[in-house]
């Protein structure tokens, strides 16, 4: 079947073409339906691709039939198929949940513009994942970023604009650094194809520009991925964005930048640059460790639930970076697994927060007193996902932390220090999660506050689906774990 | 019903009971009926597993395979069977007692009380039947969390403060020490299954082994080896049925049971012996026994005295394990049972006194033996068992532990046991003397025995303390395979 | 005078630093964007410079055998310019909305008012 062969490119083209069509849909319902259908189709494509990769190995696709490295090649392996599942799945879940929330919070008129930007963001993120061309990554990165700026700016308060401005500046600098790095590598190798780049870097005599390129690319992507200490744009952006956008961003957008970072550093530089591993680890690991502690500490003192979760993300991204910076198969695999699991828990948490905001009109902790009684099902889903965040056994969060600790243990005595930090960060997570639980369950709603009803079923269903996945993957961890282990093996095996 | 289903039923039954209790909350008689029915059902379920275990074919069940190393799985082996058997039996007795106590003292929140109790029992069954460390850890934490509302039952500021100490120490040690130990074990052994002979032999040695063992011993805070014992006296703010069943039987026994299980099925007794790991464990246990007894001597509150006595008695089990001899291990297992019956009797008596007269301090007990003959007779039997005087069950377990120690020439253990016997006598006998020989204060309000359910319960357990002295063969047959397998 | 041979790259560094300075040090949002624009131009210069071949002409194939500059960086930069313009347009639009809702385009004012809200 011809269509089956073209699936990798359809993954990007479908939302890209659908975006302007969605804008043309009238009213509020039609564009939503269109966006949901496209997300559903994209998700189906991602699932098909994942199965294909699992059974027949990595897929290479040549755009327009031009042979690589002259044309642009798409490349899908285990890691990319995992990311595609995350992106399309998060988009689908957020949209299914989002209709009433978007109608209430999103300011853009007509609202179909919002869905157009949404689909562009999906297309951009998917493009970053599937492409095998370094410059193409930049283009898709900017498509997704521009769309994301619009999505955040649609937020209900004026802080959305100031948050977005900050994000535009930081994001553009990140993209620019990435572009400079790619330029320097191109200068030394004469190619933009990532696999070709890795091969040709072996023959480069003068490594100084390549080292500079590695520095630019790493820092640029760290900015996009909101890795501590370059995270300053993120909490504001999450807090100001419409709740539905926060779900999507938290689940996948920063992670795609992290994906490109891991791809570039481990797939391209690692095999060809001597001493790159030490630089990479020595540079990233301290940031990861500090992020795990400070992110959690700041989260403890946050008064806004969305910002609290954003700082928790800063800490959790630290876990992923820590896993990657160990540069072992076990560490990489744990990092990728946590990337997946963290997407699950943060998506569930933000969906629950979306429902809370839908009913309460605020995400301030002080306003949510008594939510445990008023919205028992929503808060129960929140609690399940929060337990996963802490890493309680029988949830997905436990599994990835388990593997992370095992990976740290391979490092010998130093590993014990890492384990101590992991445990300390988990204990801090207990504290900030407990603050929310305490407010929601043990503090009575203030006198005279209007009675709040439970969220309707069409908000509860997606929330619980995600919360359920947190438990499901805490009990049946073999599938994601196998995928993560194969992805790690691909990466450290040296192929781009 | 297959063995698998029986195991799962044993776990599910108390949980179903919890639901039933919660639903029946408004009708006290129905609610307590549900509790009793559940408890009896649980005993039948658990005890029906005994023949298979005696025959050496304990059933196993796997609930979830999470990853190749992690699974929620159960397998019944003699030690766990023993723990489950007496814990479930004592739940029935304790439920009878609790009905008398809770009504007699007009306690509030009784529905929550019975519901949490049932959850705690389900967790205890999970610990008993756990087939690997991960499953055990899971239920260990459930047990901690489900007993928190019971300890904090009264809800005033002082109680909540004590309850925080309780949960702080138990959660802190289990997350900070036990969990790393489990992950470490999983990392080097590649499995967490309880396997006869252990899974660590040849995989770790020297100081690292000592550190791992220490992580386990102090991480299993429920075993109350000093200095992680503070939670147990703190837990005494709970209503007495809680202290009796949970903090003399289910929770603390879960602790020493876990220690024994880790020593036998994770490290392997032979491996520990070969690596010479018994000595420091022995010293830690001996220190705890003696120090706790000394502290008990100075207590003026009856329940706190019993708590320190429990700390001391728990370390008997750890001490017996540290001897690393088959006979002592038999003694350890037997002490699990014997101490459970004796200590629950003592707590029942303390609660009985409180219910009848609101007395909690030792100084108030003058002449109380004349007013409450049944209670104080049972108390005396329990106290004799603590000291280890025949014909009580305490004598039998000490006999075995001493036997094993003599056999292997570990006279430190013998000396510790002898000294602690003296100390036990030193704090228990004055109470008995005071209760029977001294005259009641003249201005005292006369009061009689406690309500009937209380008296029935404590007489039954006191009787069992004596019965088990004579009829100890079935218990020995049950645990024989564990020690024989050495 | 070897450094003169790479003069373009020195200018690239200078422009990038100038732009960065403006982004960090200027409080006016429009000035920040001007800084961003300078940075972007610096990157364009970098790419164009690297494609230049000494003595090469425009890359138009006419059958003769002359050396010509690499066309690829120029094509890339065309794309990058498009991206840059879109970003700039969006950023300016956001500044307009900030002016509308905060009444100022000075960073200190905006974040000050944000804290009040």
How is the secondary structure organized here?
The complex is a heterotrimer of chains A (496), B (486) and C (117).
Chain A lengths: L1 H4 L1 H18 L4 H28 L2 E4 L10 E4 L1 H28 L6 H19 L3 H20 L5 H31 L4 H8 L6 H18 L7 H8 L2 H30 L3 H26 L3 H21 L3 H32 L10 H4 L1 H15 L5 H14 L3 H30 L14 H19 L2 H15 L4
Antiparallel strand pairs in A: 1-2
Chain B lengths: L2 H21 L4 H20 L2 H5 L5 E6 L5 E5 L2 H27 L5 H20 L3 H19 L5 H33 L16 H14 L11 H4 L5 H28 L1 H6 L3 H20 L4 H22 L2 H32 L10 H4 L1 H15 L5 H15 L3 H27 L14 H19 L2 H12 L2
Antiparallel strand pairs in B: 1-2
Helix pairs in contact in B: 1-2, 1-5, 2-4, 2-5, 4-5, 4-10, 4-14, 4-19, 4-20, 5-6, 5-10, 6-7, 6-10, 7-8, 10-13, 10-14, 12-13, 12-18, 13-14, 13-18, 14-16, 14-17, 14-19, 14-20, 16-18, 16-19, 17-18, 17-19
Chain C lengths: L1 H4 L1 H19 L3 H23 L19 H32 L4 H10 L1
Helix pairs in contact in C: 2-3, 3-4
Largest sheet of chain B: 2 strands, antiparallel
> Biggest interface between protein chains, with counts per chain?
A-C, 27 and 31 residues
Kindly provide the radius of gyration of chain C, computed on alpha-carbon positions and rounded to a whole number of angstroms.
20 Å
Structural class based on helices, strands and sheet pairing of chain B:
mainly alpha
Instruction: Catalogue the unreliable spans of chain B.
Output: none
Number of strands of chain C: 0
Question: How many distinct domains of chain C?
Answer: 1
Number of strands of chain B: 2
Which percent bin holds the helix content of chain B?
A: over 70%
DSSP strand content of chain C: under 5%
Q: Indicate the multimeric state.
A: heterotrimer
Please tell me the overall pLDDT of chain C.
Answer: 84
Question: With helices defined by DSSP (H or I, 4 residues minimum), what is the helix count of chain C?
Answer: 5
Task: Explain how this protein is built.
- The complex is a heterotrimer of chains A (496), B (486) and C (117).
- Chain A has 496 residues and is mainly alpha-helical.
- Chain A has a domain at 278-496.
- Chain A contains 20 helices and two strands.
- Chain A has a two-stranded antiparallel sheet with strand order 1-2.
- The longest helix of chain A is centred in the C-terminal third of the chain and has 32 residues, at 329-360.
- Chain B has 20 helices and two strands.
- In chain B, 59% of the residues are buried.
- The model of chain B has no long low-confidence stretch (mean pLDDT 87).
- Chain C is mainly alpha-helical.
- Chain C has a single domain, classed as Helix Hairpins (Orthogonal Bundle).
- Chain C contains five helices and no strands.
- Chain C has helices at 2-5, 7-25, 29-51, 71-102, 107-116.
- In chain C, α2 runs antiparallel to α3 (29-51).
- The chains are: A mainly alpha (496), B mainly alpha (486), C mainly alpha (117).
- Chains A and C meet through α6 and α7 of A and α3, α4 and α5 of C.
């Amino acid at each position: 079947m011809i269509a089956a062969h073209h699936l990798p490119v359809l993954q990007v083209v479908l939302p890209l073409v659908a975006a302007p069509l969605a804008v043309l849909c009238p009213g509020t319902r039609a564009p939503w339906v269109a966006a949901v259908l496209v997300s559903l189709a994209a998700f189906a494509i991602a699932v098909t691709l994942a199965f294909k990769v699992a059974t027949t190995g990595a897929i290479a696709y040549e755009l327009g039939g031009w042979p690589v490295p002259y044309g642009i090649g798409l490349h899908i392996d285990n890691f990319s198929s995992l990311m595609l599942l995350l992106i399309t799945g998060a988009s689908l879940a957020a949209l299914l949940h989002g209709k009433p929330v978007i109608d209430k919070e999103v300011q853009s008129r007509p609202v179909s513009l919002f869905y157009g930007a949404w689909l562009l963001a999906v297309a951009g993120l998917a493009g970053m994942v599937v492409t095998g061309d370094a410059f193409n990554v930049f283009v898709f990165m900017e498509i997704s970023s521009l769309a994301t700026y619009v999505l955040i700016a649609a937020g209900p308060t004026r802080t959305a604009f100031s948050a977005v401005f900050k994000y535009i500046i930081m994001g553009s600098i990140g993209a620019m650094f990435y572009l400079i790095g790619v330029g320097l590598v191109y200068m030394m190798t004469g190619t933009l194809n990532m696999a070709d780049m890795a091969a040709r870097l072996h023959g480069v005599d003068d490594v100084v520009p390549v080292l500079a390129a590695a520095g630019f690319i790493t820092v640029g992507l760290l900015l996009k991925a909101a890795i501590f200490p370059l995270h300053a744009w993120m909490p504001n952006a999450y807090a100001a964005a419409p709740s539905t956008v926060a779900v999507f961003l938290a689940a996948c957008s920063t992670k795609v930048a992290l994906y490109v970072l891991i791809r570039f550093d481990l797939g391209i530089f690692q095999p060809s640059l001597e001493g790159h591993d030490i630089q990479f680890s020595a540079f990233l690991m301290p940031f990861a460790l500090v992020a795990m502690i400070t992110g959690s500490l700041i989260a403890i003192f946050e008064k806004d639930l969305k910002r609290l979760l954003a700082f928790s993300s800063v800490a959790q991204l630290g876990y992923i970076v820590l896993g990657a910076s160990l540069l072992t198969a076990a560490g990489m695999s744990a990092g990728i697994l946590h990337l997946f699991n963290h997407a699950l828990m943060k998506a569930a948490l933000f969906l629950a927060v979306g429902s809370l905001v839908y009913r309460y009109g605020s995400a301030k902790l002080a306003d949510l007193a008594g939510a445990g009684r008023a919205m028992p099902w929503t808060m129960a889903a929140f609690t399940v996902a929060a337990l996963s965040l802490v890493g309680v056994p029988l949830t997905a969060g436990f599994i990835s932390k388990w593997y992370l600790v095992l990976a740290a243990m391979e490092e010998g005595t130093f590993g014990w220090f890492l384990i101590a930090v992991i445990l300390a960060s988990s204990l801090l997570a207990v504290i900030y999660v407990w603050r929310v639980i305490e407010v929601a369950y043990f503090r009575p709603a203030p006198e005279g506050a209007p009675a709040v009803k439970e969220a309707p079923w069409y908000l509860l269903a997606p929330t619980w689906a995600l919360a359920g996945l947190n438990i499901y993957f805490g009990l049946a961890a073999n599938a994601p774990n196998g995928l993560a282990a194969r992805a790690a093996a691909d990466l450290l095996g040296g192929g781009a | 019903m297959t063995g698998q289903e029986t195991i799962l039923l044993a776990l599910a039954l108390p949980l179903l009971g919890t639901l039933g209790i919660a639903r029946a909350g408004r009708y006290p008689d129905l609610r307590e009926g549900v509790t009793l029915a559940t408890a009896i059902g649980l005993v039948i379920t658990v005890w029906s597993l005994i023949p298979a275990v005696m025959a050496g074919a304990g059933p196993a069940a796997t609930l979830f395979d999470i990853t190749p190393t992690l699974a929620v799985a159960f397998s019944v082996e003699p030690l766990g069977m023993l723990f489950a058997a007496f814990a479930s039996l004592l739940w029935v007795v304790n439920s009878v007692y609790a009905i008398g106590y809770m009504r007699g003292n007009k306690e509030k929140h009784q529905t929550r009380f019975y519901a949490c109790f049932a959850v705690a029992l389900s967790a205890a069954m999970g610990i008993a039947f756990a087939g690997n460390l991960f499953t055990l850890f899971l239920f260990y934490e459930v047990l901690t969390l489900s007993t928190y509302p019971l300890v904090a039952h009264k809800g005033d500021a002082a109680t909540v403060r004590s309850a925080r100490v309780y949960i702080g120490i138990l959660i802190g040690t289990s997350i900070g020490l036990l969990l790393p130990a489990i992950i470490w074990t999983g990392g080097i052994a590649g499995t967490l299954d309880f396997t006869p002979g252990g899974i660590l032999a040849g995989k770790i040695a020297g100081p690292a082994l000592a550190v791992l063992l220490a992580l386990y011993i102090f991480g299993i805070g429920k075993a109350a080896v000093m200095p992680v014992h503070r939670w147990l006296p703190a837990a005494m703010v709970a209503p007495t049925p809680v202290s009796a069943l949970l903090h003399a039987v289910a929770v603390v026994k879960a602790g020493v049971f876990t220690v024994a299980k880790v020593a036998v099925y994770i490290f392997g007794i032979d491996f520990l012996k070969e690596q010479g790991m018994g000595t420091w464990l022995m010293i830690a246990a001996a220190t705890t026994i003696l120090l706790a007894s000394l502290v008990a001597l100075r207590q003026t509150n009856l329940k706190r005295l019993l708590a320190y006595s429990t700390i001391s008695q728990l370390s008997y089990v750890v001490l017996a394990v540290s001897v690393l001899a088959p006979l002592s291990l038999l003694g350890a297992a037997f002490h699990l049972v014997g101490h459970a019956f004796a200590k629950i009797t003592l707590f029942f008596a303390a609660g009985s006194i409180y219910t009848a007269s609101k007395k909690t301090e030792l100084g108030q007990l003058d002449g109380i033996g004349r007013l409450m003959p049944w209670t104080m007779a049972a108390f005396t039997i329990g106290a004799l068992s603590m000291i280890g005087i025949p014909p009580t069950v305490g004598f039998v377990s000490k006999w075995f532990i001493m036997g094993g120690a003599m056999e292997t020439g570990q006279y430190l253990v013998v000396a510790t046991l002898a000294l602690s016997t003296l100390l036990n006598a030193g704090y228990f006998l004055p109470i008995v003397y005071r209760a029977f020989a001294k005259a009641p204060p003249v201005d005292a309000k006369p009061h009689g025995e406690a309500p009937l359910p209380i008296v029935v319960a404590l007489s039954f357990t006191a009787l069992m303390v004596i019965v088990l002295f004579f009829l100890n063969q079935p218990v020995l047959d049950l645990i024989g395979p564990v020690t024989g397998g050495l | 005078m070897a450094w003169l041979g790479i003069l373009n790259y020195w200018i690239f560094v200078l422009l990038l630093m100038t732009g960065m300075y403006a982004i960090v040090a200027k409080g006016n949002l429009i000035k920040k964007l001007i800084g961003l624009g300078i940075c972007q131009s610096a990157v364009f210069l970098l790419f164009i410079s690297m494609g230049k071949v000494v003595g090469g002409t425009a890359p138009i194939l006419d059958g003769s055998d002359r050396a010509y500059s690499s066309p690829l960086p120029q094509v890339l930069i065309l794309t990058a310019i498009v991206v840059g313009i879109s970003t700039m347009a969006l950023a300016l639009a956001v500044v307009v909305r900030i002016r509308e809702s905060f009444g100022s385009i000075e960073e200190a004012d905006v974040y000050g008012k944000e804290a009040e809200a």
